[in-house]
Write a structure and sequence with these properties.
Blueprint lengths: L1 H15 L7 E3 L14 E4 L2 E7 L2 E2 L4 E2 L4 H18 L7 E8 L5 H12 L5 E6 L9 E8 L1
Parallel strand pairs: 6-7
Antiparallel strand pairs: 1-2, 2-3, 3-8, 4-5, 6-8
Length: 146
């Protein structure tokens, strides 16, 4: 599996000339500012790479209620805001990675995930992790095309 992923990434780099591409930083005030030395998203060669989003309300800069449903909904609001700034949408997302503190919440997250994508089914990985930034329950990152 790792070999195939590495091969695929190298193929993209070779075919698209990724190493010579220009990078565009995507930033919006409609999503929380990055809480570290990274960007909300980077656009390159027709792809938009979103950093992991957590459940911070951009208006208050505070975490939302500590349950999986509320946090997942807020994350999708943040993702949609960043994608909109990049002039794309959830319908153009090709891959998501979901990091969860507790996979027993998977079905609750998955229900909201499916509702937000409205029939679109990007590739996805979901993993349980021991801890996430600010002790949230979930973080989602994604890659979209323009």
């Amino acid at each position: 599996m790792k070999f195939l992923l590495t091969f695929f990434i190298m193929l993209i780099i070779t075919v698209t000339g990724f190493s010579q591409s220009k990078l565009k930083i995507i930033k919006t005030y409609e999503a929380p500012e990055a809480i570290g030395p990274y960007s909300q998203a980077i656009e390159s060669n027709g792809f938009v790479f979103l950093s992991g989003q957590i459940a911070i309300d951009p208006n208050s800069n505070q975490l939302v209620k500590n349950n999986i449903e509320t946090q997942t909904r807020q994350i999708f609001k943040n993702i949609k805001a960043v994608l909109l700034e990049a002039r794309t949408s959830l319908q153009n997302v090709v891959k998501c990675t979901v990091f969860m503190k507790d996979l027993t919440d998977f079905n609750k997250m998955n229900y909201i995930y499916e509702d937000e994508f409205k029939g679109h089914k990007p590739a996805r990985s979901t993993v349980e992790v021991s801890r996430l930034p600010k002790d949230v329950l979930i973080e989602i990152e994604c890659i979209a095309v323009k």
